[in-house]
Design brief:
This protein is α/β, with parallel strands linked by helices. It is about 40% helix and about 15% strand. Helix 3 packs parallel to helix 17 and helix 5 runs parallel beside helix 6. The longest helix has 16 residues. It binds iron/sulfur cluster.
């Protein structure tokens, strides 16, 4: 990328309109332009990423009391009414892990990437209400049209995994790695879909790429065609499980602890690593344990174990099937009647599979309920409130990614789409 000095760019971070309006975030401190200080493009871009990362608002304004005390039937009636009044202008997206009281209103169900693609394919919908978590709404904004507005009904619906890789920590990691390893560092950054827009943009800018749980192996192959090593964030388990399946030995992986110099690793461990794994995990999938597989098999010798690759290595190693949310749905749905499944993923999806497939036995691998607690924050009261506002002409909780950040994030996403 060019390092030519440029003049000051238009400064905005992630804007959250309506309930939590953010002001413009200056890239260059006031007065420096007048002093004649020249910022390189790289300086400006890094500051822009930093600003975008810091500007993410997860502060939800309190709901008006009437919504808090509203009966479920009244909330449903309000949501149905808004859907009918807004017609094709509204498209409600429901992530598979969402509660049933929300999913029943969804115009489309899917994982985060599929929903973003579906949103982009609905140009008549000016309002895309994403019943998921923050990074999903950001991705929908990046991939949707300029005249479409993305709304997250509850701004406090974040993702604990995405939050484990802050923009500042990833920038610090990159600075340390590139200064210790030198110009010939050979690192390709790869971010999982479950990350902030600023990190997708960081990957776009540094020759890197985005992956999903469906295509992580193909994406890592793409990366190794272009570099000697991969920096994979934020999910250590997806990175480790994928690299092991590709035949990369565990000795050639280093675990990076954010906040510690060189991630807490000795330089020679970094030098011999082919995969540097960020110490992040999903609070839902990280709960699954090998003992649960042992217990499931002993209570039902015919059970099939199917788990998500965000589960720890010891769980993935013992499972019969491993794959993304969409893969799990496909395999269990297409399995013969009478078969038995213990599933290592989010409980709302598992329960929905059981109720929609009554001819099969479908249970969660974890006997103790493991919902995605942040996604659960999208309660019908928030959906009703956001839709009532839309009917009145007010857009609340809009998720809008800074345009420069979105452009670079789109580059990383387009690279992913180009991978066969
Ligand atoms: S299930 Fe895990 S990765 Fe997915 S949104 Fe919830 S915390 Fe994030």
């Amino acid at each position: 990328m060019s390092a030519d000095p440029v003049t000051v760019a238009s400064p905005t971070g992630v804007l959250v309109a309506g309930a939590q309006e953010q002001g413009a975030i200056p890239i260059v401190p006031a007065g420096d332009e007048a002093c004649g200080y020249e910022y390189s493009y790289a300086d400006l871009f890094t500051e822009r990423l930093r600003a975008a990362g810091q500007a993410i608002s997860t502060v939800q304004v309190p709901l008006p009391p009437e919504y808090i005390h509203m009966a479920p039937e009244e909330l449903d009636a309000r949501i149905y009414r808004a859907k009918s009044l807004l017609g094709d202008r509204l498209f409600i997206l429901g992530h598979h892990y969402q509660r049933d009281e929300i999913i029943k209103f969804a115009d489309a169900r899917g994982d985060s990437f599929k929903l973003s693609q579906l949103a982009a394919a609905r140009p008549t919908a000016s309002h895309l209400v994403f019943c998921g978590v923050h990074f999903m709404a950001e991705s929908a904004d990046i991939l949707s049209g300029a005249d479409q507005q993305v709304i997250l009904p509850n701004l406090s619906a974040g993702c604990s995994m995405a939050d484990m890789a802050s923009t500042d920590d990833v920038l610090a990691c990159w600075d340390q790695l590139t200064s210790e390893l030198g110009d010939d560092h050979g690192i390709i950054p790869v971010t999982y879909m479950n990350s902030a827009a600023a990190l997708k943009a960081f990957c776009g800018h540094h020759g890197g790429i985005v992956c999903t749980s469906s295509n992580a192996r193909s994406v890592l192959n793409w990366a190794f065609e272009r570099g000697r090593r991969v920096l994979f964030f934020p999910d250590q388990h997806l990175g480790r499980n994928t690299a092991l399946a590709m035949g990369i030995p565990i000795e050639e992986m280093a675990l990076w602890t954010p906040g510690a110099y060189l991630g807490g690793q000795a330089l020679d461990a970094i030098e011999r690593s082919r995969v540097i794994l960020w110490r992040g995990h999903c609070s839902v999938h990280g709960r699954f344990r090998p003992e649960q597989i042992t217990a499931a098999r002993s209570s039902d010798p015919n059970v099939n174990i199917i788990v998500h690759p965000e589960c720890p290595r010891e769980v993935v190693d013992r499972a019969d099937y491993v794959g993304s949310t969409e893969y799990i749905i496909k395999v269990v749905t297409e399995a013969p009647e009478g078969t038995s499944w213990a599933v290592g993923t989010e409980i709302h999806l598992v329960n929905r599979l059981q109720s929609e497939l009554p001819g099969k036995r479908v249970v969660c691998l974890d006997p103790v309920v493991c919902p995605c607690s942040t996604m659960y924050r999208v309660h019908p009261a928030y959906l009703a409130w956001a839709l009532d506002n839309l009917v009145s002409g007010n857009v609340v909780n809009r998720i809008q990614v800074d345009e420069t950040v979105a452009q670079w994030a789109r580059i990383a996403l387009d690279r992913m789409l180009s991978v066969p």
